[in-house]
Amino acid sequence: MERQFLAAVCFSALIAIWSRVNAAAIPNSCPLPPQLKAKYDFDWKLKNGEKQNLIAKVAYLKLVLSWSPTYCESLSATARNKQFQCRNSDSFGLIVHGLWPQAAKPAAINDHPRNCQDDKQLNATLVKRFYCMMPDEYLMQAEWEKH
Fold first, then answer.
1. pLDDT of residue 90
2. Are the C-beta atoms of 140 and 125 separated by less than 8 Å?
3. What percent of the chain is helix, strand and coil (3-state, nearest 5)?
4. Signal sequence span per UniProt (predicted)?
5. Which residues are known catalytic residues?
6. pLDDT higher at 59 or 46
7. In this predicted model, which residue has the larger pLDDT, 7 or 60?
8. Long-range CB contacts (< 8 A, 24+ apart) of 64-69?
9. Percent of the chain clearing pLDDT 70 (strictly above)
10. Any idea what the Cα angle at residue 119 is, between residues 117 and 125, rounded to 5°?
């Protein structure tokens, strides 16, 4: 329960920080897809090698950023055309990948807290609000559930 509360507080803090930026003052600051994907829920049990760790103690939080152009360049042309953030290469730069709770001295990646609960698909209104910061529905959902 403490971990869930901590995750909710951290996510709320991130939302509070982002909401202080007056996005309304910057019309069309980033593109949005014509419509969101219908299904973007995340199920860690379907991923090979994914583990659950409910007992790891959180020592600190790591804000993880990604450079969108490098990510897009790493994809095949077919995959790139399927990713909204990659279709217009100049639309996205530095994006938030996630806010990850970290263990103090992990011996392996699965020693960090992960996959603690299976949440419902995020509300579409919330996803649209943060699309400029995290330009993919599945990315938002996966990061919310995984970390």
1. 67
2. no
3. 40, 15, 45
4. 1-23
5. 97, 143, 147
6. 59
7. 60
8. 64/96, 64/97, 64/98, 64/99, 64/100, 65/94, 65/95, 65/96, 65/97, 66/94, 66/95, 66/96, 66/97, 67/93, 67/94, 67/95, 68/92, 68/93, 68/94, 68/95, 68/135, 69/93
9. 79
10. 145
* Cβ partners under 8 Å of residue 80, min gap 6: 72, 86, 87
Least Cα distance to 33 among 79, 92, 78 occurs for: 92
Share the mean pLDDT of the chain. 82
The tokens describing 127, both together, are 């996803």
DSSP 75: S
Most confident of 5-9, 28-32, 109-113, 132-136: 132-136
